Amino acid sequence: MNSICIFGVFVADLCFFAEKIPAKGETVLGKNHLVGPGGKGSNQAISAARLNGNVNFITKIGKDNHADMALKLYQEAGVKTSSIIQDENLSTGVAGIMIDENGNNAINIISGAAEQLNNQDIDKNLDILKKSKIFLTQMETPDEVTIYSLKKAKENECITVLNPAPARNINKDDFSLLDFFTPNETEAEFYLNKKIKSEQDIKDAANEFLKKGVKNIIITLGEKGVYFANKNEEYFIDALKLKDEVVDTTGAGDAFNGAFVVALANEFKYKEALQFANKVAGISTTRLGAASSMPNLKEVEDY
Ligand code: RIB
User: Fold this and answer.
1) Which candidate, 87, 81, 38, places its Cα nearest to that of 60?
2) 2 lies in a domain?
């Protein structure tokens, strides 16, 4: 299968489950607590690897207990780790995540060692980019390095996918680096500086991204599914009807992006790739945790 290179962050997620996410100044009594693997890039790498993707992950971690959790996870999932930089002088990142009884969350992430990723770390892994068909990244790594990685991926003829999470500024000239851009509604609102409410708003937003130079736009809409547009076609795809209750939406976007690049690597048609990614994301919301909630291929086929 075509190989996939993912660049991003690993952190340990400290998850607190309660009836509600505390408001400013409020203390709530939680119900449950777990510490598990997270970080958007790492979650996407796990999503892709559990679906039998051939995945290299580029990141930076420390040499501590959280780093050990990451390396064990990659070994179990079959993520290739030669591109993972370990620095004993740095601490692996952490995220504090509050989850309410409907599975909604609020996240504060400290990228830790991954904040020190730099352009040389990308250059050191150019051989991997050269061999990869697809390059996927997000926006938890330093902005300049994220853009540099996309430029290098393009130079090496990869199909580029940017999941702009968390939404941060992108220079107008850099949108043309993106073969696929995968914001959710809130992230799309950030880039277009306007509210997106109706179906027409979503279609208009997609057009604006195409005008900015993005080749294919995918706006993920949570329980409403996903909207796709490029210069030839545009359509909505409904979310999967779940058999189980939603317990934790943390990492659902990551499940989607990881599954989508596996489908691209398998040369699925775009609509099939999106249906597959929707299904994987849906299943992930019925399980607790971020990386821990990513289903394997058999579980997806059987669902
Ligand atoms: O997308 C979910 C992820 O965002 C969590 O795992 C958390 O670590 C943050 O990076």
Assistant:
1) 87
2) no
Percent of the chain with pLDDT over 70: 100
Range of the domain at 190: 7-22+32-302
Taking the centre of ligand 1 as the mean of its atom positions, its distance from the CA of residue 248, in whole angstroms, is 12
Reading the block at residue 100, the tokens are 């309410």
For residue range 226-259, what is the model confidence (pLDDT) as tens digits? 999 999 999 999 998 999 999 999 999 999 999 9
The protein residue with its alpha carbon nearest to ligand 1, atom 2, reads 251
Q: What spacing in Å lies between the alpha carbon of 88 and ligand 1's midpoint? A: 23
Residue 27 lies in a domain: no
- Number of structural domains, the chain? 1
Tell me the DSSP string of 180-217: EE--BHHHHHHHHTS---SHHHHHHHHHHHHHHT-SEE
Q: Is 87 a catalytic residue?
A: no
Q: pTM value?
A: 0.97
Report yes or no on 158 lying in a domain. Answer: yes
Across the range 159-172, mean pLDDT stands at 97
d(CA 205, CA 236): 13
CATH code of residue 293: 3.40.1190.20
Nearest atom (ligand 1) to Cα of 42: 6
Question: Looking at residues 68-95, what average pLDDT do you find?
Answer: 97
